[in-house]
Automatic annotation (TrEMBL):
It comes from the Bacteria. Residues 1-22 are annotated as: Disordered. Residues 1-10 have a biased composition (Polar residues). SUPFAM superfamilies: alpha/beta-Hydrolases (SSF53474). Residues 78-300 form the Dienelactone hydrolase domain. GO terms for molecular function: hydrolase activity. The lineage of its organism: Bacteria, Pseudomonadati, Pseudomonadota, Alphaproteobacteria, Hyphomicrobiales. This is Putative carboxymethylenebutenolidase.
Length: 304
C-alpha cells in the first residue's frame, strides 16, 4: 500500500461506521454452498449482506406463539416480530436489536431461538420510517445512508415503546433484557446507558466508537460512565471494523467508572461471526457466544 493509499484509507476509516468496515473487509469465500439470489429472497433473507449460506439455521415454531407486532411509536405504527413460549404466563422480555439489514429471516430466527429459551422476544423494525424495505436493498452503499440517519433519541424511544408493548401483551417488565447484532450491538450499549428498567444486555460485535454524526451524540465508549445495566460484549479478534484495542479501551473505561461488564474476544472470528446466513459465520465462536449469552441472562434473572 502506498503512502497516498494509506492516507486515503485513514480518511475513509474516519467516516465509515464500524459495521461498514467489518462487513466489507471480510475476505471473500467461494460461493459454493450458497443459495441463489432468488432462493435467498424467497427464504426471506436480506440482499445487501451478500451471498446467503445454504445451510442456515432454521428454528421451527413448535411450542411457540409467533407473529407480527404493531407497536405505537412517535410518527406511526412500528412493525415488529415476536416469539414467546405457548402457555407460559408472564415470560421475561428480550428485545432483539437487528443488524443494518432490516427485519429479515435471520433476525426472526434468532427471535424464535430466544422464544425456545422461555423469553417473550420482540424484534422491532425501527427503520420503518424510511419507507423502504431494507431487506430488498441490494448493496451497502445504498443502505448505509438510510440507517445512519436514525437518531439515537428516536432509537431509544422505539426500544422503550417495544418493551412497553411486550408488557401490555403479558410480558414481565421486571425481567427485561436486550440482545443485538452489528449495529444492533451498538444499540445494546446505548440502551444500557438509557434504560432504568433494563436488567442486562448482550452486544454481539456492537460498534464502540462512532464517526462524527450529530444524530449520535455519544458513542458507547463515551457513555461508559452512564451504564445502568450489566452488559456482555462478544467480539471477534479479526473484526476489521472493531479492533481489539477499541474493546480494551471500552473495558478500561467501564472498569474506571465501576460499571459491571464482561467481554469475550473470539480468536479467528470476524465481524458477523454469529450470522449463520453469511460467509462470516464461524460455528464454534457462534455457539460459544450463544451459550455465554444464556449464562449472562440467567445470572441477571432475565432467563431461567
Amino acid at each position: 500500500m502506498t503512502m497516498d493509499s494509506r492516507a486515503q484509507q485513514s480518511m475513509d476509516d474516519e467516516t465509515l461506521t464500524s459495521d461498514e468496515m467489518g462487513l466489507t473487509r471480510i475476505s471473500p469465500l467461494s460461493r459454493r454452498g450458497f443459495m441463489t439470489a432468488s432462493a435467498a429472497v424467497a427464504a426471506g433473507y436480506t440482499l445487501a449482506a451478500g451471498p446467503v449460506r445454504a445451510d442456515v439455521i432454521v428454528t421451527d415454531e413448535t411450542g411457540l406463539e409467533t407473529g407480527n407486532a404493531t407497536i405505537k411509536v412517535m410518527g406511526g405504527d412500528m412493525p415488529g416480530y415476536f416469539a414467546r413460549p405457548k402457555g407460559v404466563p408472564n415470560p421475561p422480555i428480550v428485545l432483539v436489536a437487528m443488524e443494518v439489514f432490516g427485519l429479515h429471516e435471520y433476525i426472526k430466527d434468532v427471535t424464535r431461538r430466544l422464544g425456545k429459551l422461555g423469553a417473550f422476544a420482540v424484534a422491532p423494525d425501527y427503520y420503518f420510517r424510511a419507507g423502504t424495505d431494507l431487506t430488498r436493498i441490494k448493496d451497502i452503499p445504498q443502505l448505509m445512508p438510510i440507517v445512519n440517519a436514525k437518531a439515537d433519541s428516536e432509537l431509544l424511544s422505539d426500544l422503550d415503546a417495544t418493551a412497553a408493548w411486550a408488557v401490555s401483551q403479558g410480558g414481565d417488565g421486571n425481567r427485561l433484557g436486550i440482545i443485538g447484532f452489528c449495529r444492533g450491538g451498538r444499540a445494546v450499549w446505548e440502551y444500557a446507558a438509557h434504560s432504568t428498567q433494563l436488567k442486562a444486555g448482550v452486544a454481539f460485535y456492537g460498534s464502540l466508537v462512532d464517526p462524527p454524526n450529530p444524530l449520535w451524540p455519544k458513542s458507547p465508549t463515551q457513555l461508559a460512565g452512564e451504564m445502568k445495566a450489566p452488559v456482555l460484549g462478544l467480539y471477534g479478534a479479526e473484526d476489521q471494523g472493531i479492533p481489539v484495542a477499541q474493546v480494551d479501551a471500552m473495558k478500561a473505561a467501564l472498569a474506571a467508572a465501576g460499571k459491571t461488564a464482561e467481554f469475550r474476544i473470539f480468536p479467528g472470528a470476524p465481524h458477523g461471526f454469529h450470522a449463520d446466513y453469511r460467509p462470516s459465520y464461524r460455528k464454534e465462536p457462534a455457539e460459544q457466544a450463544w451459550a455465554d449469552m444464556q449464562a449472562w441472562f440467567k445470572k441477571y434473572n432475565v432467563l431461567g
